[in-house]
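Entry 12.
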Amino acid sequence: MTLIWLLVLLLGIALIAHYRVSPVPALAIVAAYLALMGAADETPVWLMVVLWLVLLVVAIPILLADVRIKYFSGPMFDWFKKVLPPISDTERDAIEAGSVWWDGELFSGRPNWDTLLGYPRAKLTEEEQAFLDGPTETLCAMVSEWDISQRMDLPPQAWEYIKAQGFFALIIPKEYGGKGFSAYAHSQIVMKLATRSGDLASTVMVPNSLGPAELLMHYGTDEQRNHYLPRLANGTDIPCFALTGPYAGSDAGAMNDSGVICTGLWQGEEVLGLRLNWEKRYITLGPIATLLGVAFKTYDPDHLLGDEEELGISLALIPTETAGVEIGRRHLPLGAAFMNGPNWGKDVFVPLEAIIGGREMIGKGWMMLMNCLSVGRSISLPATGTSAAKVCSFVSGRYANVREQFNVPLAAFEGIQEPLARIGGNAWLMDSARILTAHAVDLGEKPSVLSAILKYHLTERGRRCITDAMDIHGGKGIILGPNNYLGRLWLSAPISITVEGA
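Predicted 3D structure (tokens):
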């Protein structure tokens, strides 16, 4: 009988924990049960003493805050502070960037699903759907993954079509000559392009992601927006953004790139500006960019702006024709054909007006990057990862039905059915997560936490889908050629894993 009492006690505690009953009522319920249990003649006295002592040990720190802080929480917190590395300013900015959306409910462990279902469905406008059905389909038909891999570039007519049809201006507002499309439409377009060519999708992604347009829209001055956004929208300027360097990838606080406040000559006049020195690599569109966004640490040793010498990370826009700017030899990321390469600057002088947002945004560059990166992570890479999953699902299901082994279709083998099921399940899950998070951006959120999780999981699950698809296809997936629709996906999978934070 005592054993039954104990089992009921454990079950009751589990239910209390599951339903998250408040501490005081929870303790009262357990105490009442112990009193009832002790009234039973079968329960040994020693067992009741042990149970009451355990309850007392738990109750004292819960009910007496001073005791808990002094003897439990305080010492534990002090110990954690000693063993954990100190948080840097860049880490703190990353943690505090963006906004909390329905993900706050999700991570509470008890989400209100009605709140989620109450959000409107993501849908395209007639103009967005027409662009997806028209220019996007046309652009896909203009390129071949095999042809791109052989020439190591998009065909010239594709470049011209991209500029003429505004593919670089999906997110730029219409008043500046852009499309002004929603995040959902942006995601749909990139996903469609990626089904045809990863290099094509990467080329379109960058100007619509962390490319300077996003930063200008949120933080640029009116003068900067009026000058640069129309040029970016019509393709006059090709943008790129330079953050990663030889000594700093995701840890921007470790960068050696500097901008020193000083006076210098600019267009024949002596003005207050920055003398920049930087070295960057892995910069997509870098080899062909005409407008370079650069992140650097800002210093004011002569106190021309104030008392502080170290002002923090700032962002500046620099035309690549500016004296001192150098564009290095092109990188080849695992043989991918999208434009990527290094650049550097030696004693490049620009006026303070080159800083995105002007003087008021000096030292706020990391915050700006974190807020805008959360939007890009919500759209670009999740779209390409989902595209890979959908392509793998489409081709693998059909190949398994027409390819026979031992006079039996591959689809009849359980060893093939299992990876097919994984691909299909991942494709559905990834598409759902992609749509939901892009829609959060359209609702005005900056989902920094969701976007980081989405970027990680959708690129990783995309890689798993490609692996399963390669296993199903066998030799057909291995030999590169015009009819191999998986080989380039396989080669480029680590790129999506790595970029924008591995």
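Annotation: Strands lie at 239-242, 258-266, 269-284, 291-299, 310-319, 325-327, 340-351, 404-405, 408-409. The mean pLDDT is 91.
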